[in-house]
Amino acid sequence: MIVKAVERVGDKVRLLDQTRLPGEETYHDYEDYRELIRAIRRLEVRGAPAIGITAAYALAVALKQSGDATRSNIEKLAAEIKAARPTAVNLFWAVDRVLGKIPGNGLNSLASALEIIWNEAEAIHEEDRLMCQRIGEYGAELFKDGDTILTHCNTGALATGGIGTALGVIYTCHQQGKNIRVYADETRPLLQGARLTAWELKKAGIPVTLITDNTAGMVMRQGIIDGVIVGADRIVKNGDTANKIGTYSVAVLARAHDIPFYVAAPMSTFDMVTESGDRINIEQRSPIEVTGLFGIPVAPAGIEVYSPAFDVTPNELITAFITDRGIIPGGRK
Ligand code: MRU
Q: How would you class 71 by CB atoms within 10 Å of its CB: exposed for 0-12, middle for 13-18, buried for 19 or more?
């Protein structure tokens, strides 16, 4: 049984608190949408698809709390939820999709508005589960028995409504009986690779070696890595891709060592309105996440910090996109 990052439980939303992993598997049930927004901001739930699913559920929770099913009120609540984090397009996509189900003049009955929103949020959740399956199936075609894959950040069950995107490909290879080994970048500063990817893969019995982010170049040079797969927070019209900070460095290294670099993502991560990567709003995180490690200072007090949560990999460094609709060639020649 794969772990569930987010789940509807009656009128509440259950989240696995990812800030406590791998030490503790703690779940919280939310019935206050502002707490759900806070949970998204503090990365209790994270990963683009899981953020989108949570945001859709949060709109139902918000409507129940406010008790006002007018269109203007629902739009106000939706705007508040969409401000939770700026980069993952799935957040905006999911909330707008739910909003699209509400008639122009709102609904007279709170009960019917709530039913529409919960149903649509559940549909988004279920579709994401199926999209992960398909990404896994398409992506697994690209790898053979004995391959070693490097990945960055966490893109598994913890980040989605299903088996994951980049990790979904790895899980599918494993299910098909291929012996796949994974090198997981620890992913500074918040260690999604060390805390979450290593935890998920170890639980699934898939061989995984944890490396510091700085080691990626060396293992590529040593000829250990057959391919890189990462996820995405937003893929824009020209193919430029925002993903966890450090992804761009890995893509440059992969090209330098002639190793294929794949981006795995569902169609809900594609933003066909934004023209190019330099237009993507990149979230800036608090300096505390860099100057301290779990409360212990690792830098002088008051030091200036630059901490973007994501970077943009230009399409020209991407070999192909592994999507739920098939493989789309990237711009790397
Ligand atoms: O800050 P996070 O942990 O939400 O960042 C997550 C990532 O960058 C993932 O790679 C991306 O959202 C894809 S998850 C399938």
A: middle
Judge if the beta carbon of residue 319 lies within 6 A of ligand 1.
no
Rounded-to-integer distance, Cα 143 and Cα 261, Å: 12
Catalytic position from the list 147, 213, 226, 233: 233
pTM higher than 0.85? yes
In whole angstroms, give the CA distance from residue 111 to residue 109: 5
Q: Where in the chain is the domain with CATH 1.20.120.420?
A: 6-132
Q: Which of 10-24, 103-117, 191-205, 299-313 has the lowest mean pLDDT?
A: 103-117
Cβ 160 under 6 angstroms from ligand 1: yes
233 is catalytic: yes
- Name the CATH superfamily, with its identifier, for domain 142-329: Translation initiation factor eif-2b; domain 2 (3.40.50.10470)
Would you state the structure tokens that stand for residue 298, as one six-digit string? 């690792």
Per-residue confidence at 273, pLDDT binned at 50, 70, 90? Answer: very high
CATH fold for domain 6-132: Four Helix Bundle (Hemerythrin (Met), subunit A) (1.20.120)
